[in-house]
Design a protein that fits this description.
Helices cover about 20% and strands about 35% of the residues. It contains 5 helices and 12 strands. Strands 1-2-12-9 form a 4-stranded antiparallel beta sheet. Strands 3-8-4-6 form a 4-stranded antiparallel beta sheet, covered by helices on one side. The chain has a two-stranded antiparallel sheet with strand order 5-7. The chain is flat.
Length: about 270
């Protein structure tokens, strides 16, 4: 039976969420990781129409930089172009127009981009776009749409990764306790009352390097316990909790579609 234990936000940061998952194999955990990064839609700039560009960067370079700017996304207000009522032709439900006007000398930042939707704004307003010198101008209109990370990384809402959790057992007290404490890269061991003990709160940091096992000549055992620690680190477009929720919904939809296809097989 699958079990999920929410560990809260890492270091009380709003952009990171940790949870422990057990009762599943590693392929399922990796499926979740891919769902979080690839199947949750967010807004990103797709098209840029330049009216004027006197800067030292080509249009293509600026367009690429604009496309990688993460924007706060309201999933209730927009639809994927392929799922919109306009069938991808372009309307207010699947597109958002943005404008940028700047005149040098100045540094143009992401925060200089203007939109008609107050809920959509750059996650990092001070992200630099281009530097304009005296007399140089930049005028453009951009179109942002929802997309998925599996299409392009600019539509990826997060970085998701996991690690296998372990149990560490000190079967016999080794003679070189000080060396083991010193060589552990994650400071998991400590000496208390002349005994080698574990820092309980740091066991999840173990990287399975097996340095302690080798140094102790087998007196210490490190073995996977069947659980995994998953970290979801948002780029800021969506809260980590919303990313997880939307990813599970997308997975349920995919499974329903697969079931429908199977039902049609004779």
């Amino acid at each position: 039976m699958m079990r999920v234990k929410l560990l809260g936000k890492k270091n009380k940061e709003k952009d990171k969420l940790l949870f422990e998952i057990s009762g599943v194999d590693i392929s399922y955990v990796n499926t979740l990781r891919r769902l979080f990064m690839n199947e949750v839609p967010v807004l990103a700039i797709e098209d840029v129409e330049f009216r004027k560009n006197d800067s030292g960067l080509y249009d293509e370079i600026i367009a690429h930089r604009l496309g990688l700017i993460p924007f706060k996304t309201d999933l209730k207000a927009y639809s994927l172009p392929g799922e919109c009522k306009c069938k991808g032709k372009g309307c207010g439900h699947c597109e958002l127009k943005m404008t940028l006007k700047a005149k040098g000398p100045c540094m143009v930042y992401a925060g200089d981009i203007k939109t008609k939707d107050p809920k959509v704004k750059p996650v990092y307003p001070k992200m630099p776009v281009v530097k304009l010198l005296e007399g140089q101008e930049l005028v453009l209109e951009a179109t942002a749409i929802l997309g998925l990370g599996k299409t392009h990384t600019k539509w990826s809402p997060c970085l998701a990764y996991y690690k296998e959790l372990v149990d560490i057992h000190v079967d016999k007290q080794p003679d070189n306790k000080e060396e083991i404490v010193e060589q552990c890269p994650k400071n998991i061991f400590m000496i208390k009352n002349d005994k080698l003990e574990l820092e309980k709160d740091k066991i999840q940091d173990c990287t399975l390097c097996d340095a302690c096992v080798e140094l102790s000549n087998g007196k210490i055992r490190v073995a996977p316990n069947g659980a995994y620690l998953m970290t979801v680190e948002s780029w800021g477009q969506l809260e980590p909790k919303e990313i997880v929720t939307q990813a599970i919904r997308a997975y349920d939809k995919q499974l329903d579609e697969f079931t429908d296809l199977l039902s049609k097989v004779k």
